[in-house]
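ingest -> validate -> predict -> emit
validate: passed (alphabet ok, no gaps, 277 aa)
predict: started
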Amino acid sequence: MNEYENIRPPQRLLAFDTATSSLAVAVTEGGRVLAERNIHAERNHSAYLVTAIGDCLEAAGLAKQDLDGIAVGIGPGSYTGIRIAVTTAKTLAWSLRLPVYGVSSLAALALGGWAGSSGQDAAALGELAARRGEEGRRATAGGHWIAPLIDARRGQAYTALFGVTAPGGLPERLEPDAIRLMDGWADELQRQLEQLPPDERPARLWFVGETEKHEAAIAPLIAAFGELVQLVPYELEGAWMGIAGLARSWLPADEVHALEPNYTQLAEAEAKRLRNA
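emit:
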């Protein structure tokens, strides 16, 4: 059975993410991005999110009651940021009686960082996301690999791995979201590349997102594979969050009261409490 059978995505979708320092909001209709707002909020998202949503809806010419669904970044990333986004999404979905869709913040970051850097067309990818249930999904180890990074301090990053058949495809997951030591993660990716015959390796391995603090860990990969490895500092943008949300909405919606953030690890305060117990 096709996993998309009898599922149609919401026509008008509000999507937002606050898992990083970037507050990204978008409204989409079908595969088109009607409006977006991007605010570098330094993780002070509670002061801006509701206003940014209102501004985005106004720019799109819609009221909240015109929406058909809500997509929200559930992390991993900033604990406070994720809580703010998920709580806001659940409140809106419950009060407006709308379906809600939890989106991996790393998946949205991977899509936006790769698409912008490789010159992908947002309108074309939005159209593809709007009909992907008809075409199906296929993860690939060819084309390009994308490793999104959100810094988690102490040499760690929230990261995953996605593959895309370039040009003109949508990234598909190859490795799960997790918090990883970057030295070990870079070693693992190098091992995977070395095990592939040269003609089966991806054309590019993109590290996108909060890359600056992890350049030293990635340096051996660059030394081994040269221009195949690309580092792209990137802050998530609303348009790509909207397209990621639309792609996610081809799967069943989340139960509004059961939707939870993906923290990936215990908050530092909780970890300290447990250590001292």
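The CA atoms of residues 108 and 235 lie 10 Å apart.
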